[in-house]
Structures are given as structure tokens and as C-alpha cells.
Amino acid sequence: MKVSIDMKSGKIAETSTKDSIAGIDLGTTHSLIAYIDNQGQPQTVKTGDGKQSLTPSIIHFDERGQLIVGEVAKQYLISQPERTIFSVKRLMGKSYNDISEFRSSLGYEIIDNDNDSLVKINVDNQFYSPIELSAEILKSLKIDAEKALGTNITKAVITVPAYFNDAQRQATRDAGKLAGLDVLRIVNEPTAASLAYGIGIDRNQSMNIAVYDLGGGTFDISILHIEDGIFEVLSTHGDTFLGGDDFDRAIVQYWTRILNLNDIKLQNDAALGQSLRIAAEQAKKAVCSHNVYEGKVYDYLLKLDESTFNELAFSLVDKTIDSCKKAVQDAKLAITDINKVILVGGSTRIPLVKERLSQFFEQTPDDSMNPDEVVALGAAIQADILAGNRKDILLLDVTPLSLGIETVGGLMDSIITRNAKVPHRAARQYTTSIDGQKNLRISVFQGERDLVAHNRKLGEFTLRNIPPMPAGIPKIEVQFLLDADGILTVKAKELRSGTETSVEIKSAYSISEEEMAKMLLDSIRNAASDVNQRALLEAINEANNLVLSADKFVVQNASILSKEEVESIVSLNGSLKNAIKNQNKNDIESAMQALNVYTTPLAHKALDQNIQHALKSTTIS
Fold first, then answer.
1. Does 272 reside within a domain?
2. Residue numbers annotated as active site
């Protein structure tokens, strides 16, 4: 039996048969949980103290090893920084090398484990993964919601930045499982935010919106087209290592320069480093509302005015504007086609952000809703949709980077292209390049360049026990299935024999979002050279196949061919081999043409001879 409580009146409401599914915003700085009330409206759940809905995403381990989450844990950031974990979302799906620059600003110890590419946090020689720590935050939210609503919370929708990759989405889902939640959907934060704003509820509404989401640790911009209750994400761009924490760090770096504090002193005095970081966060908020900040940490006098802050913040804000440009271009829209810009995330309160956005989009952004709560509220609406309580809305998200496999010559063959709608299914057929090949290794990559060497490897597996056949005869279908959470499953099947295998790609080594953005830039900057190199490699692949065919043709038809014909084929084949060695595309194509022109009539002649031989002893009645 489920009991619903009207949070406004505090009274027990009529028993509902609706499924109760929570919406959760697992944030870098704060996290919160929301639900749909009896009037069908999304509401956030207050924390254990009943004062606010935001739970600081901070975990403290006391001397007995007991966990404390939230506001109380925040009190230990300065006094016990080595036992107090913050910004864990930035570590999700990351390796030690991914966070090398960020590591110095942490008061706790990150472990480089050679046996596991994902980071671990060391507290009293106990090692915790970001997934385990995130699960503790989710557990805290779950407990608060169960106390407030008087019912068990077992199912949830959890939001992630639109630019989270496969590893980070997997990590978020696993954290939910550890917290005792059945994670029904991983939803992109900007999509959730647009739902919270009520955009698209009117089925007659048709518009393009930009959702600018700048939180504590992540940033993304999404362009959505909304029509007839369908939310279609046209494009997305962003950086999961850009947010309010970086503005704070810029202030700390400014102060350390002014005060002549070196990195060694900060690393040796974690409490000082955390004190400066907390003061920087206070200064950021102060200058955004009162134009000036003055404070003191130890004996150091700290000052910051709005003008100086804007100088420090300009390059960071400019990065987000660059992403906005790319997102609009990818959506194939003009600035004037954007009907509305909505703001998400606490860092959008910075006046410089609003000013630059107004200039770029040529309109005033809408910040009428609390930017800290809007994502969780939207997640609750999505949860209500999944519960079957709302059938008038459909969400269509996209994947941020192309997914494909490595083909002969190190080429990237994209099976699902960037900004394809999810969930998505796509397949392509391949064959073998060697006679009698029994096994085929399939390597999966993510990126926009034509060569796999320039992209990120997600994983690989082997299709085994292919029946031995001549090269080119097997028909191998490789199928990509990208689910609604953006998680990839790859299947491979030899169609003639039915031999098949599949694997869910769980990349243990994640891709940084700056690197994602760099991939997109590189794909544009190197487009011409990539096209030329792809053309060369394709010519080499075709030529190698022709060389093998010519050698095989001579052996199989030695009794039919004259000595001069054999010598000519060998000579032309030798010229093709030299052209391949010299890697000149034009020379390769010329040599292939010469060999094809000479051997085509000989192939017809050989075919006629073989047919006559086969029919010699056959009687036709």
C-alpha cells in the first residue's frame, strides 16, 4: 500500500495507484531530490533539517569510519580536509591522469592504482571509488525523501550533464544501484530543465530553445526543438570539467599570486588551501551582488572587486560562448531562430554570464525559476512520464560524439554519427580480408576523425569461430544499440553461419570533455588532410586486395596463360606493389587501372575456358 502526503497541508491524501518515482539531480556542489505532488506539480524534498532542498555533495569520514553527508560534512572541509570529500562528480568515470591538474586543489588523497584505471580516494587506508561515494549522497537523498513522503523510494530518474560520456553514465547508474535505487533512466540535465519550465506542455507550441547549464563542476549547452509535445535535442556541446569550481580556483590562483604563496606551501597545508577555496566561493557570490569582497584567512587579507573578478572569469565564460556557437551551428540554425534561452545551474547567477549570453543570443535569458532546483524538478516530471502518468510528452536526446569501429588500415567507420537521436540502432556489414579467417577482432571507437589513432578507444571484442571461407565471402553484420541512457551495446554476427557475439561497452578509461571538444575542433581543422589520408588508405586497401587477386589469378590459371601474359601480369603487379610502398594515391590508382585493363580480357578468357572444361563431359538432353 502506498500513502501519499500533501506536503503543503501535511495531510494524508487519497490513496493513489500511481507509481512513485523520484527525480534526482546528482550535482557537483549540491544534490537534491524531487517528486510529483497530488496536484501533479513537481516539488523538491527538504533536507533532514527541513530548512532547504539543497544537500551539499560532501562526504565526511569521522575517526570511527562513520559517514556523514551534506551540511554537517561541510563543516569539516577546513578542520579535516583529508577526510572530507567534495566535487566527487568530477571524478566519475575518470582516470588518475584525467584529473592531474584538478588534483592539487583537493584536500583529500587520490590514488593512482595501476591495476585499475579509475581513480580511488584514500581515507585511513580505506579506498573508495567515486561510484561508492556518489552512492552515499544518493542514499542520503533517498532517506530524506522517504522521511518526508512517508513511503519507500525504490525507483528514480537521475540527471547527468548532456556531455557525459558512456563511462560517466555507467558510473552514475551504478551509483544509483549501490544506493538501492532502480535507475529507470539517465536523463540529460538540459532536457530535464526544459520540462521544468513547462515548455512543450502546450501541444500547439512550436519553438527552438537553448538550455545553458553552468553548474558547480560541469557545463553544457543544448539546442532543442519542441513541437506537438515532442522534445527533440538538435545538438549539444559542453565540458564536464568547467563550472563554478573553476571560477573559485581562478580567484584562489589570483590571491596566491598577490600573496606570493607557492604550490608547495598549499600542498603541505591542506587546511589553508581549503580555507582559500571556501573564501573564494564567498568572494564570487559577494562581488556578484555587492561589487566588492574583503575577508581574512589566517593572517592573509583577501580582497576582490567585480572588475577583477570579471577579468579572471572572462576566459572561462568565453569557453561557454564558444560551445554555444558550435551547438547552434550543429543544430543548423541561426541565432535568430532561437526563441528562448533558459538558465540552469547556480553559476548562471554571475552577471558576466548573463551579459555575454544576452550579447550572443540577442535576447535576455530566462532565469525565472530557481537555477539550483530546475533540473531536479524536470527529473521528477520525467519520472512521472515513465510512471505512465503523462502520455503527452516525448523526449528525444542525442549522442555527443560519433561511435564506430576500426577497419583495415586504421580507418574509423562511424556507425552512429554525432548528434544522432537516442535511443538509436544502426548496423553495417563487413567481410574478412584474409582467406580462411576464423576470428575477427572488433575495436570500438568514439570521435570525429577519420583515423582511429586520433579518436578514443572504448573497448574491443572478438567474433570467434567464423567458418573458414575465402576472403570477402563472409557477411559480418556489426550492430550498435545505443539506449535511452546513452549506453552502448555492440553485436556482431556472421550472417551465413549465424555465429554471433555481443558486448556492452563499459569504458573504464574515460574521455575528458575538453578532449571531446578538442576532437570536434580537430575534425574541422584537419578535415582536408583527413579526407586525403582516408582516400590514400582506401586506395591502399583496394590495391592490396587487387595484388592478392592477381597473384591468385596467375597460380589458378597457369595452364591457360601464355609466358608473356604471366610476365606482364607479374610486372604490372610489381608496379602496383611499388606504388603502394611509396604511398602515392595517384600512382596507386594509375597502377591499379593498368593492371585491371590488362587482366580484364584475360579473366574473361579464363572464365570461358573453365566453363568449356566443365561442360566437356556433360550431356544435355
1. no
2. 25, 89, 189, 213
